Amino acid sequence: MTSSPWQLSYIELRGDKDVQRVDLVVGDVRRPISPQGGGTFSERFDERLSSATDQVSLEVRRRKRRFFRTTETVKAYSIEVQSGSGRQVIKRDKVDITVEVSSQPDTIDHGSLPTATFGGLKPTTEDLIAQCPRFRVLVVGKTGVGKSSLIDRVFGTKTADVANDKPGEAKIEDGLISPRNDRFILHDSKGFEPGEGGNYDTVKLFIEARKHERLIKDQLHAVWFCFPVPMVHYGERLLEDGAETFLEQSHEALRNIPTVFVFTKYDRLVKYIRNVPDRDPQADVEEEAKQYLQTHCVEPIQRSLKGKAILHVAVSSRPNHQRGLDKLTDLTYGSVKESFTSLPNTVSPVPFAAAGAQRVEPGVKIESSINVGKQSESPCIKMYLHTHPLKGYWRALASSTNFLGFTVLDCLGVIHTDIISVWNFYDPSAYLGSEEFRHLMVNMVAKVDAPTEPSPASTNFSRSGTFSGPLPLITATIVILPFVAGLALVRWVNESYQRLQNVHLKFMAYIVDLTHVLNILFALKGGEGGKKLTRREIKLAFNAYYASSWMEDVHESIREFKHMIKGRDEIIEKIEGLVLASDRETHVTGAIKGIPSVDLEQDEEWYG
Fold this sequence. Notes:
Blueprint: E1 6-14, E2 19-26, E3 29-37, E4 40-51, E5 56-66, E6 69-78, E7 86-92, E8 95-103, H1 124-131, E9 135-141, H2 147-155, E10 175-178, E11 181-190, H3 199-211, E12 222-228, H4 241-249, E13 259-264, H5 266-274, H6 285-304, E14 311-314, H7 325-340, H8 349-357, H9 362-375, H10 379-384, H11 390-398, H12 408-423, H13 435-445, E15 474-475, E16 478-479, H14 503-525, H15 535-546, H16 549-559, H17 570-579, H18 584-593
């Protein structure tokens, strides 16, 4: 195999009908290959897989039945890619492997974030992702507990890629990555089921081994123990013998590792309580359920842990019955921050990875984005977060050769990349990082300077914060943007930022506007984060914000902002106040209500 890096965009295996499952293994990362029938398995990767190592193989699982006896075999076939690009066929015993590859220059694996530079500036998130490309989670739970649906909902994937969720098939050492969200890596373990009590040794040894990994990206970042809420009236138990043994003996192994106990199928408990005979109909179901969980779930675990307090949450992942996923996300993120942040007011790569990987809580993403902005080493971003008085600050910028030559557009490009990286939409076509979308955002920010100018293209939008009805956004099934195609950017974007008056106001508007548009887009996806992002969705979210009084209020507040008090981080405080405003969710809900019902999965050009 060539030692130079290469990119894999397609793989196919043709074997016999006995082949049951095929996995692509790159290092400690495993991706399942989809069956096509007739012994053929293939997968095309929207975002090409890269490799600079020889540890690449296909693991083929066969199942044969002979003389009333079924046997299983697993064989690994190494992939030896020849130098060059194009389609290559690799013949092995009983199988033909076809790959499509291309050579590439040496780069650091940054997960799904495309490397970008703007006039020589580098996004802060690039270094964070290089240190920890993926949030590494161990999920432990027995068959049928609901691990797959839980992972799907929290991380916004189509399938959880949990090794079929069958006892004996999950391999805890294998790291699984969903192609729809490669910012997290999953280690799956079967639970402590009857006859599998020895599994607690496997889990314990794995946790201890990961604690001693030298690189932070290889360490274990969080553990979720999943137990279905037991119906004690039906004779169900929370903890099997193996689970009790593990909890009693693994206290030290779990020390300093963010751990959350997840009680699944909460909706089943609620249904049971509501149907109890002769129950007081006025009684609070949620309060009764809370007491039940404390008695039959929390306290048994605490007894096994000798009274130690635990992080816990009850969840339901069923469609239309989802509950507790936001709390699970918040608990995990908060614990990860506490465990992996050593210095105050700094951004650790692991909490950043955790915030980006989850697709449930927009508030976590906004907080992480703000933290990245505060820490940024980019001189442009330091400019809008500078803590000195304005006059002295401008004087310092003007005298520093490090700041010369950067245009406002370059600086905004870095900020843009950092923010969209935190939100981590499934965007294989990189629409959010495209020049078209960045130019839309710049022209939106230009409204800060000219609030009374009419839009170049009439939108016929109602200027209402809550929207009284659907906006007329669709004409002949194409979403009409408020700017005409080819509209020139405002002149100031090509100015050197140290020469542009009140440039900090434009930076503030860009950060807040982009965050609000992405927040609306996040809500528009509505739990479908595993589906590919389309330009139609982006345009709808952009228009919804552009047409709202929310944008007008933000711009008015920024125009009136005065940075004058010495010793105060006023710019930081203003940005935080605008993006984390108490009425943020109300505005987002209003924006979503004003978006017409259309096929969001249908893509379209930026300008029809």
